[in-house]
Amino acid sequence: MSIFVFSQQKIKHKVVKGESVYSIAKKYNVTEKEILDLNPKAKGVLALDTELILPKYSKKKDEPKKVIPKGTTYKVQNGESFYTISRKFNVGYETLTDLNPEIKPENLQIGEVIRLPKGVKVPKEEKTKEVTRKSKTNTKNQKHIVGSGESFYVIAKKYNVSVEELRQANPQIVNDKLDVKDVVFIPSSEAVIVKGKNIKEEKKKIIEEEKTTLELTQKEKEEIKEEIDSLTENHRVEPRETKFGIAKKYGLTVAELDALNPNVKELKAGQVLVLRKNLVAKEDKPKTIQEYEEENTPTYVPPMDADAITKAEFLISKASECIGVRYRSGGSDRRGFDCSGFVSYTFKYLEMNLPRSSWEMANVGIKIDRSQAQKGDLIFFKTVRSGISHVGMITEVTENDIKFIHSSTNNGVIVSSVNEAYYSRRFVQINRILN
């Protein structure tokens, strides 16, 4: 009788190539903790053909509903922290944390409601501008039959409409889950009418303001030129260096470096390259306090918009199709991948061409704070002494963990956790590529 009950509550699973506790938990809709509780030896890399005991049903509970505080409150906006809010309302940082003991300052969420001291005046929220689409008179939306591997992003691109417009035209589709032969309605191509100010004009105004802010004064340009003119003139090529890396190191473009060295077609270790006048490598120059503070201050960026999130989900689905593909040094197709080859291969589905090495990829996009990580961001590690040497793509972010898919030397394409001892010691940075 006890055996019968056990068989009803538990199931067995045999590990296949490329599987991890994370991917198995996803497959059976249970938590990793529930698997590890039943299989204590399953921590780390899973051996092939290992039999795991899995719970038939997960006991995970829904997250408790957050209680909206009473009194004077404020809803957190994009890019805000306890520090910026305390400055905004001229209240002490400690006062703010004391009033909100249940909220972790390092994990502040957009839209979260926080308490403010009595007497603080909070401006009324501006009503969100509504965007509506004018449908053609007596014209039905065009229909599309979903094909194999198609997502909202692929279909939206095919018909030159936005993903959000596609969602609005198909409220019957839940969580963007499309099956082959599903019918998707394509919104008509009428112009979008915006109530209030024109959104395009607002965006244009913001871009112009940013350009003005970033422009250097003539005096600053002259000071930079004088500094450049006063420095050294040659660079000896180190093993594995590229023109892109050397040019970036000295503030040049690859075209400028080629113009100064017309006889150098292919780099070899020990070659001496001519540089513009007398340049000193950036890391050789002593940093000012301001430069140090700027480098060590996290870059806060707005969360991904709906379109970028859809792109991230699309990339993750494509990358997951490669789980189990072997590792191959220099490989960039399904015959075998190295880490950067795998990421580069995945992003080509969005027609995005990334650099071929992980440390060059680390200079693409925006370096963001770890607390702002989202699906689709690139995550970098230092696995050798020379610097960044490994890259993966984030597939899931929880309060205490970040999962990423990558091509590992020993196991090929797998999903790993940043909390694994090997990766937690070697984590370097996260870059936002999408959006």
UniProtKB/TrEMBL annotation:
- Which Pfam families does the entry link to? LysM, NLPC_P60
Residues spanning the membrane: none
List the coiled-coil residues: 200-234
Q: Which GO terms describe its molecular function?
A: cysteine-type peptidase activity
**What positions does the domain NlpC/P60 occupy?**
309-434
User: Where's the LysM domain?
Assistant: 11-61, 72-116, 142-186
What family does the entry list? Belongs to the peptidase C40 family.
Q: What is this protein called?
A: Uncharacterized protein
